[in-house]
Structures are given as C-alpha cells and as structure tokens.
Amino acid sequence: MLDHASVSPNSPGFPDHPHRGQETISYILSGKLEHEDFAGNRGMLTAGSLQFMTAGRGIMHSETPLPGDDGTANEGLQLWVDLPKEKKMCAPRYRDLHSSEIQEVIADAGRVKIRVISGVSNGVQSQQDLTYTPIWYFDCTVKPGGTIKQLLPQGWNAFAYVMAGDLIVSGSQRATKQFDIVTLSQDGDGFEASVPAHYATEARFILVAGQPLNQPVVQYGPFVMTSRAEIEQAVSDFRMGENGFERAATWASRATKRL
C-alpha cells in the first residue's frame, strides 16, 4: 500500500494505533513528523528523511505531522511492505535514514537527479539492511529534455508514482501525469522515462521495486497477515494485550495526551 498525505497544521495526524505483520517506510517530503511508540522509541523526522519501521509481532505508535520550522505544511509518503511469513512475528525494530545519509546521482548532463534511498543506481549503493523484504526505492527528478534510465532486479514487482509534473514512460502510449502510478512488468530489467524538452516543468516521482514473496496477503486495518485466522488472532491479541501487545492497553503517547 502507498499513502500520499498532505496534512493541515490543525490535524491530529495519526494518533495511537497498532500494527502487526508489515514494514512501513515513511518519507517526509516537507514539514516534520513526530513519532513515538509503546517501547519508548521517540523522535522527529525532518524533510528529506525516512523511517523504516518493522511492526513484526506488534507495535503501538503515534505519528504526528507538524509544519516545518519555516511554516511549510507537512507532506509525506508511507509505503507498506509485506513481511515474509516467517518474519511476521519477529521483534519490532526501527531504522531512521536521515537526509544527509542519502546519496544522490546526477545524470544526463544535469537533467536527472536520483536520491538513492534503497538499492543501487549508476554505481551508487544505498545504506544496507533497511527492510527484511528486499526493496529498491528512488526519488527521481527529471528536467525538460532529460531521460532517466534505471536498472532494476529482474523478476521483481515495480512501480513509479508521479508526485509532480508529467513524463513519458518508455513503452507507454500516453503521458504519465501527476498522481498517476505506472506498474512495470516482471519480465523487464529496467525503467526508462523522459520529460520532453517542450514541457514547462520538471517531473518528480518515486520508483520502487520489491522482491515478490509469493504468499497470500490478508489485510484488516493496520494488520497484514497471510490468512483470516492470523488476522483474527492479531485482533484478539491486541484486545487482550497478549503476544506483543502487552503494553498497548496502558500506553498513551505524549501527542495523544496533548490532545
């Protein structure tokens, strides 16, 4: 699942809620995000930074979008990545990836910029061990007259989601516009797209590829498992405060207390 959120300054955001069975990747495009969980983890993400969270057997947390220090409204992306069945009940974990840790690639005579969040682009390797399920994640900007070419692991699922501008994806019969998503064939091993020179603005999009797990996906709200029985168990564990949710009933985030 991919969520693209623009949050007003008066919004309570995403108060205390549980997860089990997936990993979430939160990417702050503008503003800030305050996060806290029932295990005592707490922090602030700023524009250009990401958080990789493994829910595993259970986590209860809050996410509070905030404007930037200059008043910039909060905007961000959150990608849900399924966990392999054998990792569904692993211990929760976090990995913050600060903007300064992300390397950039400049290509096509300066007309293409790629932030290498996860994976490899033009010989540049990202930080390692960000998720249990292998994924590649790039933030790409292409100026008019530019063409981006990016190799991807063959056999993986992949998509591009356009955040701003229009571009022409190789093999497509029409322009891909803002808020469009393009899914790629598993048979290919790369992605190519361009912004014609006569276009007025640059295009910005994310390019994401992930290793298929070839397992059932059963989602109920914030829980992602492989069967209805596992979902029912997750709901029961959360309500009863068991099997990873022991602290859920008595915990409240500082953000919730402020509200």
Automatic annotation (TrEMBL):
Residues 1-21 are annotated as: Disordered. Residues 137-243 form the Pirin C-terminal domain. InterPro entries: Pirin, Pirin_C_dom, Pirin_N_dom, RmlC-like_jellyroll, RmlC_Cupin_sf. Residues 12-81 form the Pirin N-terminal domain. Belongs to the pirin family. This is RNA pol II transcription cofactor. It comes from Paraconiothyrium brasiliense.
